[in-house]
């Protein structure tokens, strides 16, 4: 197994390691990119392959991570406070530690996981988290459907580029309730994103919407 050292750039780190597959008789290169997000406490790691084919998973404690071997290992690194899985990335949130000290351990853990061929989740626990039950009146079903479509087509793809997700939780008396995940959770700019971005978008296309609130 040959290893090429990491190259550190201003906004991106790429590691290249050659992996000898136990199932195939060829060497498969692996690249992991590390991108900054608007949240300085969260970095986005892209292993160059699909992480979750459908949905997302947000884990904020070792208990949340119990069903995912990779997340469990990441939480085992001192200073890690959150792990988020997107389609092709893993967003990791830190506490008070410095990224220059944490990144090597995180990169090594992600590489080891994909090299081992271990599943992302233990049996019968794969898939997106179900989360809390949504709340809204049946008479608002059409309005909610429009809100969800706008979120899915205009908001969530852009937010995923920043290492996070915004999930619909409910609608009541004109207010849309959203749950911030990944890099969006605790991000200093999340309030501005909600008020000046998402709220304005929803109010423009859905006149019944009067505001947006995080939950």
How are the elements arranged and paired?
Elements: E1 3-8, E2 12-20, E3 27-36, E4 42-46, E5 57-59, H1 69-75, E6 80-85, E7 90-94, H2 99-116, H3 141-161, E8 164-172, E9 175-182, H4 190-205, E10 211-214
Parallel strand pairs: 9-10
Antiparallel strand pairs: 1-2, 2-3, 3-4, 4-7, 5-6, 6-7, 8-9
Helix pairs in contact: 1-2
Could you please describe the fold and organization of this structure?
The protein has four helices and ten strands, in the order E-E-E-E-E-H-E-E-H-H-E-E-H-E. The radius of gyration is 19 Å and the shape is elongated. The chain is of the alpha+beta class and 215 residues long. The protein has helices at 69-75, 99-116, 141-161, 190-205; strands at 3-8, 12-20, 27-36, 42-46, 57-59, 80-85, 90-94, 164-172, 175-182, 211-214. The N and C termini lie far apart (47 Å). Helix 1 (69-75) packs antiparallel against helix 2. The chain has two domains: 3-116, 2-Layer Sandwich (Ribosomal Protein S8, Chain: A, domain 1); 138-214, Fe-S cluster assembly (FSCA) (GMP Synthetase, Chain A, domain 3, 2-Layer Sandwich), CATH 3.30.300.130.
What would CATH call the architecture of the largest domain?
Answer: 2-Layer Sandwich
Structural domain count? 2
Q: Name the CATH homologous superfamily of the largest domain.
A: Scaffold protein Nfu/NifU, N-terminal domain
Overall mean pLDDT stands at 84
List low-confidence stretches.
1-27
Succession of helices and strands: EEEEEHEEHHEEHE
Cα gyration radius (Å): 19 Å
Q: Determine the strand fraction and express it as a percent band.
A: 25-35%
Number of strands: 10
């Amino acid at each position: 197994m040959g290893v090429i050292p990491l190259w550190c750039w201003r906004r991106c780190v790429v590691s290249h390691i050659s992996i000898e597959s136990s199932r195939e008789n060829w060497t498969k290169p692996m690249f992991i990119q590390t991108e900054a997000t608007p949240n300085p406490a969260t970095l986005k790691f892209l292993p160059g392959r699909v992480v979750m084919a459908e949905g997302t998973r947000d884990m904020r404690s070792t208990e949340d991570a119990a069903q995912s071997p990779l997340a469990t290992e990441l939480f085992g690194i001192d200073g890690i406070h959150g792990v988020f899985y997107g389609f092709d990335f893993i967003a990791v949130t830190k506490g008070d530690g410095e990224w220059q000290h944490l990144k090597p351990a995180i990169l090594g853990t992600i590489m080891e996981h994909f090299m081992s061929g271990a599943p992302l989740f233990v049996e019968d626990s794969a898939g997106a988290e179900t989360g809390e039950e949504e709340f809204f009146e049946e008479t608002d079903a059409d309005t909610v459907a429009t809100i969800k479509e706008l979120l899915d087509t205009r908001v969530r793809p852009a937010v995923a580029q920043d290492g996070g997700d915004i999930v619909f939780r409910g609608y009541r008396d004109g207010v849309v309730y959203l749950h911030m995940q990944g890099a969006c959770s605790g991000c200093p700019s999340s309030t501005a994103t909600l008020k000046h971005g998402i709220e304005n978008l929803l109010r423009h296309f859905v006149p019944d919407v009067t505001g947006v609130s995080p939950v």
